[in-house]
Amino acid sequence: MDNYELIPRSESAAVVILRGRIDAAVATELKEALRLAVSGRYRYLILDLEPVTFIDSSGLSTLVALLRLVREQQGLLFLAGVKDQVQLVLTQTRLNQLFPTYPDVDTAFKHLASQANGL
Amino acid sequence: MEFADLETRARWQRLVQTQFDRLLPRDRRSYHWARAWIVRVIAVANITLGINYFFYRYTASINVNALWFAIPLLAAETYSFIDTLLFILMMWKPKYRESPPPLPDATVDVFITTYAEPVELVRETAEAAVAIRHPHTTYVLDDGNRAEVRAMCAALGCEYITRGPEWEGRPRHAKAGNVNNALNQTFGEFVLILDADQIPDPRILDRTLGYFRDPEIAFVQTPQYFYNVPLDDPFGSQAPLFYGPIQQGKDGWNAAFFCGSNAVLRREALFQLGLITYVTELERQIHTFISQIPIQATSRHIPRVYRKTAHEVTSAAERAADDLRNDVPLQQVLQTFNAAIRRAQRQIVALDMASIEQDLLDMDLPGQDEDAAEDDFEARLDQLAEMIAPPPEVFGLSADLLDVLKMDTHEVLDIQPLVTFSITEDMATSMRLHALGWKSAFHHEILARGLAPEDLGSMLGQRLRWGAGTIQVLVKENPLVKPGLGLAQRLQYFTTMYSYFSGFFAVVYLLAPVIYSLTGISPVVSFSGDFLIRIIPYLLVNKLLFFFVAWKLDTSRGAQYSLALFPLWIQAVLTVFSGEKLTFKVTPKTRQSGIYLNMVIPQLAIVILLAFSSLYALASLGLGWRSDTVGVVVNVFWSLYNIRMLRVILSAAVYQGEAQLAS
Asked: Could you tell me the pTM of the whole model?
């Protein structure tokens, strides 16, 4: 799949860059692929949403599913680069309260490093 | 007949005509009437002899030992006979019109369309247009957006129109788009359209507007005539047969063609056409797209969880297609269908929200709506659905359809009075006007003089455009089945389209004598006796028919070119059927000089073949190698006839325009 890219940052942390439209057409497959890539390997995730142009309800459920996966492993999930439609949707659904959000990946990573144990 | 020079030919024609002329009454109207009756009598004879000939051809003449040769020739002859029958129908009741009294109060816009023609040329036309006697406003429609044309208009006191920025990146539709753009900015009841090179006579409106007293007349077409063409018309530019007997014949069936310029049109008719076209086109598109949804849906990958929803959309599309077929109003169909899409989107949103709720509960996080009442949740879902609805592509709906449903046609003008789907927008426009029940008139008087192409390349390009455009109209809007047209009108349009398929059969006619002369293989059982006694009267009467139809007109060039341009007609048909994109090319009004034998290679090759094979056949006959004297004589004459027909284009290829004229 070319709509995401996983870049390991340490033993237990990774940055996931999502791209383009995260909608019902791709969400199911994306959810499965990320579950496989992350599960049992990375507790700490930063989702870089900067290149995302549109997100729909299925995309949101992908984000929440990922959050659940990380929490089950006692990890943390931060969002970076959220903008425009994605920002609006997260606010309107009040899901933004669940996701610590930072302007870019580097800032998110700094905060992650200060909160996470054994990064 | 072949003549040493033009002078002799003209003298011969005058001689024949003065002999026959004495038999015709003097008054123009009765003269016209008498000629029509002579044509009818000859036509009946032609049909009778034709039936007699073809009965023999089909039952007794086919050479079964050479079917590969016999069948193509019989097909070609049958094609020609049908062509003759259609021609006879066209000529059955030609309409002779005398200019009605002018219409003094009519408001008229005169449009001069230009793209890249030299400013001086446009100026000459604009000056003549300003000088037209009937009160009017002259507009120069400059698709080239040139400052010097604008300045020229200001100096002459006529209006200047060019396309605005809204056309950028949109389909421009060439000349039709240019005229439509101007129609949307002007107000006259009637519009006279002139090409940049067509210098109007000051009386052009006085002579034509009177026809519009009949409120059902949509347009009046006048002949196109070219003033830069020498007497022998090397490129066959003048079309006296078309802008005379043929148009009068079509007019008799209320099917005179609009030919793009030198015509006055009623604005009301054009806008009615534009409006109806817009609505029906939209309905058609919606119907096509909606009918395609169930098919597309099966070929698209749809995630398993959404399949049930996608299926509901597909059913809704099938219902909508049925409703459209059953003439349920478009608006109602769209409302129902759009509601189905919204319902489907909401179902997916609800599904996703439920999955989110479940995840949140499992994480021991408060559900987003745990304290909200159920109906409040419903209301919020509606609101959310707007924003986070999955794109309809998920259910197999294409982006094109969504544009159609939003009524976005990508066009600058929703209402396009002149038809834009074809590169011969004029023919398509008149056909649609006739289908709407409008009438038309052909006024047989030269009231504008234009420039014909002066080199072979431009001429070939122009004819190819006409041919391909005409066949394109046949393919996209077959007149034989187009609702609204009468039977005779259908056939009038079809006749013109049919004639453009002649190229394939021309090859058969041109090569048949070559094959016979070289191999002795005959397409018919025998060239003598029974065959000749039937074909000779048939062909002679056929010639006589054309002679009387074209009374006093020099139509030999037209006849020669209709055969000699066979590669072009074939190319035109193939271009359309291969689905190649056709573009409107402006015909150059200034000469592109040079010698163009490379453009006529097929014709040159066939002339050489004809000459060689004839010499070969005669020589072998002389040497006693063969004894089929009648066959050889018939085929040598046939070859000579073919060479004479093709010669015109070979001379045209080396024609040097006015330079040659001067020397």
From this structure: 0.75
What are B551-570's pLDDT values in tens digits?
888 778 888 899 999 999 99
User: In terms of C-beta density within 10 A (0-12 exposed, 13-18 middle, 19 or more buried), how is residue B59 classed?
Assistant: exposed
So what's the pLDDT on residue A119?
66
Q: What value does the mean pLDDT of chain B take?
A: 88
Shortest Cα–Cα distance, A57 to chain B (Å): 5
- Identity of the residue in B348, B359, B362 whose CB atom sits nearest the CB atom of A58: B348
Specify which residues A54 forms β-bridges with: A21
Q: Please provide residue B61's backbone torsions phi and psi, each rounded to the nearest 5 degrees.
A: -110, -10
Nearest CB neighbour to B359, from listed A27, A54, A64: A64
Q: How far is the alpha carbon of A74 from chain B, nearest alpha carbon, in Å?
A: 11
Weakest mean pLDDT among B177-186, B555-564, B640-649: B555-564
pLDDT (tens digit per residue) in A79-109: 999 988 888 888 888 888 888 899 998 898 8
pLDDT digits (tens, 9 = 90+) for A28-71: 888 888 888 888 888 899 999 999 988 888 889 999 999 999 88
Q: Which DSSP category does B165 fall into?
A: G
The answer to whether residues A74 and A80 touch, using CB atoms and an 8 Å cutoff, is no
Quickly tell me which residue has 């070859």 as its tokens.
Answer: B639
Residue of A nearest to B309 (CA): A24
Instruction: Report the phi/psi class of residue A55: left, alpha or beta, with left for phi > 0 and alpha for psi in -120 to 50.
Output: beta
Chain A residues within an 8 Å CB radius of B359 = 61, 64-65, 67-68
Chain B residues at the A interface, defined by Cβ less than 8 Å, are: 303-306, 348-349, 351-353, 355-356, 359-360, 362-363, 365, 368, 384, 387-391, 393-394
Nearest to B348 among A24, A29, A68 (CB): A24
Residues 6+ apart with CB under 8 A from B86: B491, B494, B495, B498
ipTM for this model? 0.89
Instruction: With CB atoms and an 8 Å threshold, state whether B355 touches A61.
Output: yes
Region class of B106: left (phi > 0), else alpha (psi between -120 and 50), else beta: beta
The residue of chain B nearest to residue A58, with distances taken between CA atoms, is B352
Judge whether residue B399 has pLDDT over 80. Answer: no
What per-residue string of b and e applies to B13-41 under the rule 16 or more CB within 10 Å gives b? beeeeeeeeeebeeeeeeebeebbebbee
Given pLDDT bands bounded at 50, 70 and 90, which one contains residue B388?
A: confident
Give me the helices (H) in B172-235, please. Answer: 174-183, 204-208
pLDDT of residue B92 exceeding 80:
yes
* Contact between chains at B368 and A95 (C-beta distance less than 8 A): yes
Residues on chain A touching B305 (C-beta within 8 angstroms)? 28
Taking an 8 Å cut-off on Cβ atoms, the answer to whether A58 and B363 are in contact is: no
CATH class of A4-114: alpha beta
The structural domains of chain A, with segments of one domain joined by +, span 4-114
Looking at this protein, which amino acid is placed at residue B117?
E
User: Do B349 and B385 meet the contact criterion of CB atoms below 8 Å apart?
Assistant: yes
